[in-house]
Amino acid sequence: MESGLSQAFQEELTCPICRSYLTDLVTISCGHSFCRACLHLSWEDSPAHCPMCREPSQQKDFKTSIVLKKLVSIVRQASLMKYLISEENKCVIHKETKGIFCMENSIYLCRLCSGSHEHRGHKHCPIEAAAEGQMERLLKQMESLWEKIQENEENLEAEIVMISLWETCLIEREEAIRAKYRASYPDLAVQEEEHIECLREEGNYYLEKLRKSKATIVETSKQLREMYQELMVMSQEPYVIVLQDFDDIFRRSESIQLSKPLAMIPELGGLAVRGLI
Predict the structure, then answer these.
(1) In terms of Cα–Cα distance, which of 140, 159, 133 is closest to 239?
(2) Which residues constitute the domain of residue 112?
(3) pLDDT per position as a tens digit, 30-41
(4) What is the rounded CA–CA span in Å between residue 155 and residue 149?
């Protein structure tokens, strides 16, 4: 009976999408709860339906179950405490349990080690508090990264539209120039071709820049998404791993967000041919 209750309890705290403990959980209008990141990715390329019951939902209709969030935190803290009291977590020098986290070196320390000359000037805090703090930093980083992903997608869409408009503009300008020559300068075939060539050179110059800009945005999108997936995996790890491995992934996430390729907007008026259009 107890085993069945425990299993049912675990199921309630598990995301139906990733099958890990709910992380930054959100509850949508139908009442089902998911990891925020899982729901973001699930709804990105499909209509906003509940992955469980398929009921339509609003993408911004996110609520948080305070009780469920607290229960998940308790379970994750319990898992951390189980590790902290294990033999594996005892200081090899002083044989004491390591219950202090050194923020400077991202390592666990026992009470005596934390007061040693090596760590005396470092910032310390109880491991349980450090775990919650690092998780909050991780979730904020994921939120920031997701905003960058959406912004980058908007830039990509704008660039695709601009390339299409530019190609159409080139065709229309060429047709307009030829029509002008036929109507007003039918004997200037050589000059007509020179003007067309000038148009194509200028147009293709900007078209190539647009395509390179698009390629840069696509590559940035790939890097942002890979980083988001990495953060997502990290958020599902036990607190023990989050505490010790977070600094490196945090620095890389910050670095990748500094790259902000913007959609290129060339001057369409630059394609006019002097004396004609």
Answers:
(1) 133
(2) 78-128
(3) 889 999 999 988
(4) 10
Q: Identify whether residues 110 and 36 lie together within a single domain.
A: no
Residue in this structure with the two tokens 């309630």, named with its chain if needed: 12
**CB neighbours (10 Å) of residue 124?**
18
Radius of gyration of the chain measured on its C-alpha atoms: 29
The owner of tokens 């050179």 is 201
Q: Are residues 148 and 43 in the same domain?
A: no
Q: Among 64, 97, 116, give the residue marking a domain's end.
A: 64
> Which residue has 């509850």 as its token pair?
27
The rounded distance, in Å, linking the Cα atoms of 242 and 226 is: 18
d(Cα 181, Cα 31) in Å, to the nearest integer?
A: 68
- Output the six-digit token pair for 119: 């760590």
Query: Residue 125: which H helix or E strand, with range?
Result: strand 124-126
Nearest residue to 133 (alpha-carbon basis) of 77, 89, 83: 77
Q: Which residue has the higher pLDDT, 224 or 45?
A: 224
Confidence of residue 192 (pLDDT cuts 50, 70, 90): confident
Q: Tens of pLDDT along 216-251? A: 999 999 999 999 999 999 998 888 888 877 888 888
Identify residue 152 by its one-letter amino acid code: N
**Would the pTM count as exceeding 0.85?**
no
* Residue 267 pLDDT class (50, 70, 90 cuts): low
Tally the domains of the chain.
Answer: 3
Please identify which residue in the block is written with the tokens 């704008």: 158
